[in-house]
Amino acid sequence: MSTRADREKLELLQGTLDLLILRTLIFGPRHGQGIARAIQETSDEELLVEHGALYPALQRLEERGWISAKWGTSLNNRKARFYTLTAAGHKQLGKETAKWTRLAKAIGRILGSEPAGG
Question: In the CATH scheme, what is the code of domain 13-109?
Answer without folding.
Answer: 1.10.10.10
